[in-house]
From TrEMBL, chain A:
PANTHER family found in the cross-reference section: GLUTAREDOXIN FAMILY MEMBER, GLUTAREDOXIN-RELATED PROTEIN 5, MITOCHONDRIAL
Family: Belongs to the glutaredoxin family. Monothiol subfamily.
GO molecular function: 2 iron, 2 sulfur cluster binding; disulfide oxidoreductase activity; metal ion binding
InterPro entries for this protein: Glutaredoxin, GRX_PICOT-like, Monothiol_GRX, Monothiol_GRX-rel, Thioredoxin-like_sf
Protein name: Glutaredoxin
Span of domain Glutaredoxin: 17-81
From TrEMBL, chain B:
Pfam families assigned: BolA
Protein name as it appears in the record: BolA family transcriptional regulator
Gene3D superfamilies in the cross-refs: BolA-like
Any one GO biological process: iron-sulfur cluster assembly
Length: 120, 84
């Protein structure tokens, strides 16, 4: 296992919810990263953010790790869930709620419902 | 050939879609990260094909990424709306 791969492996297994993104959750630097971080923040989900712009090895390594060419990338309990389009779709369909429930991740259901109502 | 046309040809060949719309959204991202003069940086694809039946969301995206091949690393952003 390469150094980048073992570092990623450690991070996604040590944290229930991890978002690899451009920028930080307080200061996203890309619209797609911003959207996913915004959903998680709004839903009150505790998550670890990893800024790929601050680490070239991770920026490439995360694409190899998941065999996924783009950022952001969301991981729950060590499993790759998807990027911006998938997380948006899963938020609106309620699948993200189910995923969090199945994995014992705390989130604000009312906030999730508000996102859905605003996008109905 | 414009990248949208290259994408269209590869997606047609791979999935025989019933619906396929590709747009170059680069101008909407002028001034943002990844924008470059002349566009061809940000794209969105709407595709519907029977070939995606039985595949999960991640698998569908991976199939589209695979069909687009070396186009993916050449562009900055690709928004996908995939269905059957």
């Amino acid at each position: 296992m390469t150094d980048a791969k073992s570092r990623i492996d450690e991070t996604v297994k040590a944290n229930d919810v991890v978002l690899y993104m451009k920028g930080t959750k307080e200061m996203p630097q890309c619209g797609f990263s911003s959207r996913v971080a915004g959903v998680l923040n709004y839903m009150g989900v505790a998550f670890k953010d990893v800024n790929v712009l601050a680490d070239d090895e991770i920026r490439q390594g995360i694409k190899d790790y998941s065999d996924w060419p783009t950022i952001p990338q969301l991981y729950v309990k060590g499993e790759f869930v998807g990027g911006c389009d998938i997380i948006t779709e899963m938020t609106l369909s309620g699948e993200l709620d189910t995923l969090f429930e199945e994995n014992g991740v705390a989130y604000d259901k009312d906030a999730a419902d508000k996102i859905r109502a605003a996008n109905a | 050939m414009p990248i949208t046309e290259e994408m269209r040809a590869r997606l047609q060949a791979a999935f025989a879609p019933t619906e396929l719309e590709i747009s170059d959204d680069s101008e909407r991202h002028r001034g943002h990260a990844g924008y470059r003069e002349g566009g061809e940086s940000h794209f969105s694809v709407h595709i519907r094909a029977a070939a995606f039946a039985g595949m999960g969301r991640v698998a569908r995206h991976r199939a589209v990424h695979a069909a687009l091949g070396d186009i993916v690393p050449r562009i900055h952003a690709l928004a996908l709306d995939i269905g059957t």
